[in-house]
Design the sequence.
C-alpha cells in the first residue's frame, strides 16, 4: 500500500505534527514500507540524537522513512550520500555504539526521507564494530531499529565484490535498491552492465548513477519512492521464512520481524555451513554477473595481463627470464669493464704513489709499514673497490627489473619450476633473495611454515650465486674468456640454479622424504614504469652494503692475510720482508693444495684464495691482489697485471688446461660456503648441527663437481 | 548442493594452480568473481593471504641476521620501505586447521 505523498512534507521540521499526521493516516495493520508502526517511530533513534551537526544540517521530519545507505568501503558511498543530501549531514555515534554514522535529509518525490550513511561493510558477517553495526541495523528484528529500505552502493568495476552484501540483504524482506557507481571506471576497463538484466537476476531495482557528476539521481529518487510504496520484497530463494512472509504480506498482516539468515550474524553452526551458505550466495552472484555483464574482447586483458601471457608462460617464461638475465650480465660486463680498468689504474697509480710519498715524507717509506699500506690495504681493498661501477650498474638494472614488477614474474617462473620438482613452492622467495645476498635469504626462510622446509631451504640458499661471487666470476671471466665474459658469468648463474635443483632433489629424496609441496597461489601486482629516483635509491642502498663489506670485513681480512704473508717459515727471512711463497700463508695453503690438484687448481695461490674466501667472497680478489703484489713488490702494480699472473698460475696448476681449470675453480667457488656471515645466519636460523652439515654438503659438492668439470673438460679442451 | 564458485576456487587451489588467472581459466569463472571469491575465502579463514616482499624478511631488518643495531639494512639488500620497493607478491595458501 502506498503512503500518501502529502504525509512527508519536504521542508517539514522535526516536529510532532508531521509525525502525528503520518501516524494518523497509517493503517495500523498495513505493512507499508513508507509507514512503519507508531511504536517503531517512537523508539527509532531520532534524527540528530547523540549527533553533532556539521553546520546547519536540516533533517527529515520525525517519523519520516529511514533509508540506509550501505556498501563496501571505497565504492563511492559517501560521495553519493553528499550528492543526495546536498552534503549537509550530522555526524555522531549511533546510540549505544562508538560507531560514527552520518545522517541527512534526502528529498524524493512525495517528501523527505532520513538517509543514514552506514559504515562501509563488505558483508553482514561482521569482522569489525563498523560492520557489526551495519549488520545489526539491517538484520535486527526490532522494527524500531530497522530502516524502511536500503540502498546498497555497488562498484560496477568490482561488481562481484559488491554484490555479496546485496545477496545477504536480499535474503530479507527489506526493500533494496542497488546503486551502481564507478560506471566510468568500468567502461574504461571494457565492462558493460545491462541494468535491466541485473535487475531481473537480483530481483530488485538497479540504478546506474555517477555521484561525482550527479547523474542518475532523479531516477534513484523516483525508484526509491516506488520501492517505498511497493512494500516488502520476497526474499531471494523463497526460503521457508520467505514463503511465510510472503503469505503474511498477501494476507495483509504485519510481519513480526524481517527474516534474516541468522539473527546472531553467523551463518550456521560450523565452518561447513558457512562455506555452503556463502557458496550459494556466490553462485547467485556469479549467475547475476553472467547474465548482465559483458566485457569487450579487446579490453578483457590489461596490458599487464598481455605481457604476463608470455612472461609467466610455462616454456616462454623461463626462456625470457634467462634472456633478460643474460642481457643484464652482458651489459654489466661490457659497460663496466673500461670503468673498472680506469679505477684499477687509479689505485695502482696515483693512490699508491701518493701513499708512498706520504709515508716517505714522515720517515716510514721502504719498510714494513709501506708494504702493509701499498701491497696490503691499497692493493687488496683497492682491487675490491674497482668493482664498484660493475656492482652499481648491476644493482641499477636489477632494481629496474624489480621496480617494473618483472622480478615478481620471474619468481612465479621459479616457483613453478620448484613446484614441478616437488620442492616446497614458497621456498623460491628466499632463493631469489639469495641471488642478491645469502644472509637475508637465510633470514627470509622464516616465511616458510614448516621447520623442515626452513632447514631444507636454508641449506639450499648458499648454492644461490650471490653478488659477492659475481666479482670473482667477472675477474676470471674477463681474464680467461675476454670475448665471452658476460656469457660465462651468465652460465655460472645457470649452474647455480641447476645446483639448487639437484641438491634440493638430493636432500628431498634423502633427508626430507615426507616434505610435501604447499599449494601456493600468487597474486601479481600490475607492471609499472620504473622510476629513476627509486631505482637509484635501491642501487645506492645495495652499493652501501658492498662498500660496507669492503671497508669492514675486507680490511680486516687484508690485515690478517698481510700478517700471515709477512711471517716467514724458512730460516734466514725476517718479518715483513719474506717472499710470500716462503710465508706462513703459503705454507698453510700448500697443506690443502694437494686435495685440489685433481680439480686443476692445486697451486697454493689459488687454494689460499679459496681459504680466505670462507670469510667473504670479495676477499678472494683482495687476497690475490695482495699475493701477487707482495710476490714481486719491486715491479710495482700494472693495471690488468693481476689477470696475467692468474693466467700463469692456472696454466701451471692445470698442466696447460687453464680454461677448464678456471671453470672448475668457479664451480668450486659457487658451491662451497659463501661467507662467515651466512654461516652465522644459518646457525641462528637452523642451529649448529644443520649448519655444520651444510658446510660439509657444500665442500663435498664443490670438490666433486670441480673435479668432474676439470677431469671431463680437459679431455675436450 | 552443487559446487559453487567458492568450492571451485578451493578445488583449484588444491590442484596446484599458481595464479588467479589460472584459477579463472580452470574454473571458468570471471576474474572478478575469482577475486571476490578469494577475498571471501580469506574472510572465512579458508585461505591465508600474506604479502611477500623480496629483499628482506617479513619482520624487516630488525629480525634479519645482517640487520644493523639501529634496525637498518646491513647487507646491501633492499630494506623495508614505505614505498615497498621490490617485487611484492600476495601469497595465497590453503589454511590448515593444525596451524
Sequence:
Amino acid at each position: 500500500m502506498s503512503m500518501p505523498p502529502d504525509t512527508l512534507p519536504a521542508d517539514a521540521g522535526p516536529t510532532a505534527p508531521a509525525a502525528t499526521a503520518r501516524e494518523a493516516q497509517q493503517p495500523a495493520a498495513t505493512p507499508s514500507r513508507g509507514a512503519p508502526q507508531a511504536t517503531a517511530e517512537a523508539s527509532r533513534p531520532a534524527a540528530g540524537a547523540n549527533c553533532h551537526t556539521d553546520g546547519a544540517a536540516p533533517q527529515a521530519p520525525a517519523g519520516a522513512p529511514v533509508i540506509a545507505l550501505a556498501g563496501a568501503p571505497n565504492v563511492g558511498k559517501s560521495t553519493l550520500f553528499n550528492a543526495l543530501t546536498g552534503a549537509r549531514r550530522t555526524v555522531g555515534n549511533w546510540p549505544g555504539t562508538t560507531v560514527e554514522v552520518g545522517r541527512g535529509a534526502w528529498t524524493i518525490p512525495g517528501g523527505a526521507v532520513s538517509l543514514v550513511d552506514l559504515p562501509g561493510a563488505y558483508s553482514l558477517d561482521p569482522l569489525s564494530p563498523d560492520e557489526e553495526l551495519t549488520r545489526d541495523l539491517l538484520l535486527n528484528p526490532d522494527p524500531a531499529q530497522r530502516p524502511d529500505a536500503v540502498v546498497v552502493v555497488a562498484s560496477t568495476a568490482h561488481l562481484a565484490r559488491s554484490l555479496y552484501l546485496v545477496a545477504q540483504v536480499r535474503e530479507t524482506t527489506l526493500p533494496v535498491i542497488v546503486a551502481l557507481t564507478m560506471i566510468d571506471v568500468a567502461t574504461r576497463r571494457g565492462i558493460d552492465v545491462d541494468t535491466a538484466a541485473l535487475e531481473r537476476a537480483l530481483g530488485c531495482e538497479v540504478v546506474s548513477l555517477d555521484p561525482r557528476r550527479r547523474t542518475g539521481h532523479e531516477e534513484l529518487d523516483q525508484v526509491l519512492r516506488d520501492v517505498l510504496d511497493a512494500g516488502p520484497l520476497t526474499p531471494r530463494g523463497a526460503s521457508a521464512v520467505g514463503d511465510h512472509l510472503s503469505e503474511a504480506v498477501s494476507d495483509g498482516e504485519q510481519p513480526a520481524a524481517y527474516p534474516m539468515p541468522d539473527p546472531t550474524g553467523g551463518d550456521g553452526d560450523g565452518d561447513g555451513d558457512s562455506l555452503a551458505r556463502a557458496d550459494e550466495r556466490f553462485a547467485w552472484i556469479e549467475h547475476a554477473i553472467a547474465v548482465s555483464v559483458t566485457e569487450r574482447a579487446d579490453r578483457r586483458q590489461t596490458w599487464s595481463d598481455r605481457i604476463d601471457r608470455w612472461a609467466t608462460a610455462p616454456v616462454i617464461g623461463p626462456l625470457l627470464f634467462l634472456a633478460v638475465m643474460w642481457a643484464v650480465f652482458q651489459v654489466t660486463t661490457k659497460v663496466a669493464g673500461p670503468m673498472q680498468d680506469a679505477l684499477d689504474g687509479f689505485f695502482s697509480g696515483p693512490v699508491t704513489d701518493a701513499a708512498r710519498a706520504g709515508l716517505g715524507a714522515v720517515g716510514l717509506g721502504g719498510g714494513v709499514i709501506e708494504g702493509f699500506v701499498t701491497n696490503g690495504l691499497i692493493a687488496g681493498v683497492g682491487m675490491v673497490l674497482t668493482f664498484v661501477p660493475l656492482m652499481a650498474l648491476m644493482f641499477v638494472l636489477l632494481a629496474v627489473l624489480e621496480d617494473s614488477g618483472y622480478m615478481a614474474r620471474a619468481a612465479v617462473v621459479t616457483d613453478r619450476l620448484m613446484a614441478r620438482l616437488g620442492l616446497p613452492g614458497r621456498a623460491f622467495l628466499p632463493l631469489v633473495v639469495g641471488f642478491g645476498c645469502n644472509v637475508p635469504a637465510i633470514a627470509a626462510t622464516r616465511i616458510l611454515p614448516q621447520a623442515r622446509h626452513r632447514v631444507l631451504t636454508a641449506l639450499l640458499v648458499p648454492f644461490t650465486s650471490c653478488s659477492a661471487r659475481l666479482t670473482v666470476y667477472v675477474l676470471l671471466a674477463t681474464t680467461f674468456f675476454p670475448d665471452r665474459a658476460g656469457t660465462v658469468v651468465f652460465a655460472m648463474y645457470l649452474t647455480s640454479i641447476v645446483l639448487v635443483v639437484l641438491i634440493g632433489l638430493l636432500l628431498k629424496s634423502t633427508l626430507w622424504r615426507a616434505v610435501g609441496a604447499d599449494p601456493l597461489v600468487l597474486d601479481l601486482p600490475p607492471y609499472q614504469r620504473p622510476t629513476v629516483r627509486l631505482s637509484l635509491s635501491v642501487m645506492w642502498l645495495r652499493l652501501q652494503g658492498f662498500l660496507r663489506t669492503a671497508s669492514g670485513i675486507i680490511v680486516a681480512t687484508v690485515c690478517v692475510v698481510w700478517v700471515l704473508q709477512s711471517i716467514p717459515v724458512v730460516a734466514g727471512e725476517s718479518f715483513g720482508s719474506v717472499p710470500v711463497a716462503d710465508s706462513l700463508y703459503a705454507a698453510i695453503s700448500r697443506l690443502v693444495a694437494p686435495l685440489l690438484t685433481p680439480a686443476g687448481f692445486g697451486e697454493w695461490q689459488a687454494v689460499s684464495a679459496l681459504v680466505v674466501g670462507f670469510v667473504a667472497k670479495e676477499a678472494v680478489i683482495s687476497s690475490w691482489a695482495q699475493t701477487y703484489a707482495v710476490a714481486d713488490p719491486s715491479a710495482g702494480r700494472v693495471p690488468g697485471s693481476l689477470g696475467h699472473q692468474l693466467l700463469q698460475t692456472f696454466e701451471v696448476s692445470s698442466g696447460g688446461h687453464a680454461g677448464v681449470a678456471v671453470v672448475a675453480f668457479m664451480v668450486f667457488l659457487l658451491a662451497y660456503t659463501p661467507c662467515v656471515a651466512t654461516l652465522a645466519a644459518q646457525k641462528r636460523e637452523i642451529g649448529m648441527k644443520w649448519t655444520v652439515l651444510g658446510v660439509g654438503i657444500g665442500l663435498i659438492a664443490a670438490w666433486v663437481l670441480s673435479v668432474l668439470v676439470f677431469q671431463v673438460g680437459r679431455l675436450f679442451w | 548442493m552443487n559446487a559453487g564458485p567458492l568450492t571451485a576456487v578451493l578445488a583449484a587451489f588444491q590442484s596446484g594452480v599458481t595464479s588467479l588467472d589460472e584459477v579463472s581459466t580452470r574454473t571458468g569463472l570471471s576474474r572478478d568473481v575469482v577475486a571476490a571469491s578469494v577475498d571471501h575465502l580469506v574472510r572465512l579463514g579458508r585461505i591465508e593471504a600474506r604479502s611477500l616482499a623480496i629483499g628482506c624478511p617479513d619482520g624487516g631488518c630488525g629480525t634479519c641476521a645482517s640487520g644493523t643495531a639501529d634496525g637498518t639494512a646491513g647487507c646491501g639488500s633492499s630494506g623495508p620501505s614505505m614505498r615497498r620497493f621490490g617485487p611484492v607478491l600476495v601469497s595465497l595458501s590453503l589454511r590448515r586447521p593444525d596451524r
Summary: Chain B touches chain A through 64 residues (CB under 8 Å).
